[in-house]
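Operator note (shift B, R.M.): manual run for Putative radical SAM protein YgiQ requested after the automated queue skipped it. Running by hand, logging everything below so the morning shift can see what happened. Input copied straight from the record, untouched. If output looks odd, do not overwrite the archive copy; leave it for review.
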Amino acid sequence: MSTALQTEPNLFSYRLYWAQRFGIAPVLPMSKAEMDELGWDACDIILVTGDAYIDHPSFGMALIGRLLEAQGFRVGIISQPDWTNAKDFMKLGRPNLFFGVTGGNMDSMVNRYTSDKKIRSNDAYTPDGVAGKRPDRAVNVYSHRCREAYKDVPIIIGGIEASLRRIAHYDYWSDKVRKSVLLDSKADLLVYGNAERQIVEIAHRLANGETISELKGIRGTVHFVKQIPEGFAIKDSTDIDHPGAVMPPQNPYQEEPACDKKSDAATDEKVISFPSSSVGTHRQQIKDQRAKTVIRLPSYEAVKDDPILYAHASRVMHGETNPGNARPLIQLHGARQIWINPPPIPLTTKEMDGVFDLPYSRVPHKAYGSANVPAFEMIQHSVNIMRGCFGGCTFCSITEHEGRIIQSRSEDSIIREIEAIRDTSPAFTGHISDLGGPTANMYRLACKDPKIEAACRKPSCVYPGICPNLNTDHTPLIKLYRRARALPGIKKIFIASGLRYDLAVESPEYVKELVTHHVGGYLKIAPEHTEQSVLSKMMKPGMGTYDRFKDMFDRFSKEAGKEQYLIPYFIAAHPGTTDKDMLNLALWLKRNGFRADQVQAFLPSPMSIATAMYHSGKDTLHKVSRTVADIPIPKSVKQRRLHKAFLRYHDPKNWPLLREALKDMGRSDLIGNGKQHLVPSFQPKGTVETPEKIQRFKTKYTGLDNTRSGKSKPQPVNKNKAKRKPKKY
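Run finished. Output pasted below as returned.
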């Protein structure tokens, strides 16, 4: 990690709380009986989660729980409680310090609903995959029940669900802008990101007698303020990013360059010329001034009714995500103000090792018996080697949650975990399912200059091209792979995390290592689309980079004597996508012989850049205003269904819909029975979709008939005609 950011106390440097005398629990208790076995009369901290309790570092509550235990605190877990009353929230008694509440490893709304807002039939984080074990908006509901159980106990919310709702945010499921979750949950404090630093500091300060209302200014937290703290200046967000006429900036978030060695730290203040002897002093003055400046975002009441102001607030917020230069934000919600502190300082390698070396049992809690937890089955033999992502994909929320600075474990720590899996897991067969993280190949990659990194405001280090200041050396990762697969008892190590192939092609040696030793016949990668107009809204590389990677992949597979294939993933209905774009993608798929079994439709997750596009109808990677041209946003059920159908052009159920669309687009030449055609002209017997069903679908969701009049009143369907067999063409 950059030395420029190492200003926080070491995570394990705090004096241990007195309860450390009770020692390490085999597993964190989930019942009074387990507490009695440990000799506890109370818990200091109780963590409430929407997931099954798996004592494994891939599960957030286990990691936070074990970390707090390592600080000397007695930590209990309330997993998937009955939320209909407060009884389950009282089963461990009153915590001495606070309740920590999370919806789980996944956002509870994403967990329960598909991108088409249909209820999912299972939940991978629940024993036996049973659905319905957590409520919608679980953070809100759990917090309310905690308050009912013990009204005077502080409530701290965190995890992905709280993290992505820390400011006023667009909510896809209700199709409106909602308040910060801090207000809706009625919690006392919100921690965002992975939260190790802030939760440890909070626990020790509360244990030392401070009240929850005194915990202000902690990085990575959101809290209420009655007035601006003394010494802070207020800067209106419209002074930074005025939502006016379009003026193409040099990079998406500012006028002045952010990653240029000739530039000082990016600032919004006017640059003043100083004599050379005083330049250093001036730089320090600017730095000090920025540290004492808070940016006022438009209020909740303003953004909830104005998509342009919402897009503006999103742009400003995303410009304040680098812990090296981020300023606090403030946003009014009615009569209350929330204060969003800058992101936490990333963990050092030593701290990352300490977190992952904690004494996890690595198995589900015994209360689940022989039940299978699908998420555990997926990750029990995988190893997380890093966190964070500097890719900046607009549809992804990793940067908003984990940050863009890569935090890597040491090679020794990773090897110790592989050996622990080998030696302790009864189900281990010699195969490690993954060595990765948010991405597979950003391990130990960082900016070459810590000062540039601390000053940078670019949302991506790899778009529109790889920043010249980025170190792309994959040597440490290659060395790790070789050492790991040489361990006794390890038969195969797979790489299953998402691969940034634009980075991989910078290291042919890495691609060869990956292809030769770590691919199990198929490698999944995510170009996401083929059309540049769409890729520019995603901040993804063009297909030329994919072609370069595929050439390397095929060449090294042949040299290794292996028959291996790339499986590309694509997104349908992303903001900026037209029907023609999806048609071109479908034609590319057909030319290259791909037939997708599953397709992914864009889901507007809270706070992402693409969600701001979806809600505002504007390209928020550039300045927005009411006069800027709209971009296409596939919102209707019919259009989203059509875009998914293009990805599955080979499915007969989609052919009637695609035939109709191709005719409307003037591309009837793609309907026929030759190799040059996208869909055949006939409909096989037994397929579900018929022209009549498509018409009924359109009537149901649009209220429009199929006539040229465009009247909204649905026209009656001729029942006798509907009974006729579909005509074969």
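Quick read of the result: The longest helix spans residues 543-559. DSSP finds 27 helices and 21 strands in the chain.
Leaving this for review. - R.M.
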